[in-house]
Amino acid sequence: xxxxxxxxxxxxxxxxxxxxxxxxxxxxxxxxxxxxxxxxxxxxxxxxxxxxxxxxxxxxxxxxxxxxxxxxxxxxxxxxxxxxxxxxxxxxxxxxxxxxxxxxxxxxxxxxxxxxxxxxxxxxxxxxxxxxxxxxxxxxxxxxxxxxxxxxxxxxxxxxxxxxxxxxxxxxxxxxxxxxxxxxxxxxxxxxxxxxxxxxxxxxxxxxxxxxxxxxxxxxxxxxxxxxxxxxxxxx
Length: 236
Known about the structure:
This protein is an alpha+beta fold.
């Protein structure tokens, strides 16, 4: 029986490629071991059948952006642990072949309000990250907020005009009723706790809140705890 060797070395033997090209073939999901795709160059093989899939190319992975419907109350680190291959939304329409490499070196931008659930953006793409950070003051974020209490007289008008409070002033904000217990807020780059402050100022208490849109990208019907890829035609 042959001594086990790294999968990358076996690919080099099969193709005559360089070590880096072998790693790219493997990380790109192009290499099978006994018919199953293996994406770890260090995976040890002995007598197994190793082959390249049709159309294999030794190209670096395209950086991806993932959209997660984050459950409420999770830290960013805990939310990232929810991102597993099995958590991909079955109805994801993005034409992307799922690879484990899409879950490494992810960065987050535009954090959720404290305690909120909903649309969390995680990306490997430095261009997307730069846009989200540089355009944070221009990108509208939409939240649905569950509230209790009684809205003060002309409360929505006050929100739309801006409200003077004890420690300063709350700027005008777009707000409307979604139903009897839920408000919709649309605002740009809200500081932590701002939505709760708006609600307090008009006699309401926040029970829960969910971000449903960032710029031109809605969360849509993505279930809680599942994720999807940002589509090629979607723009923040």
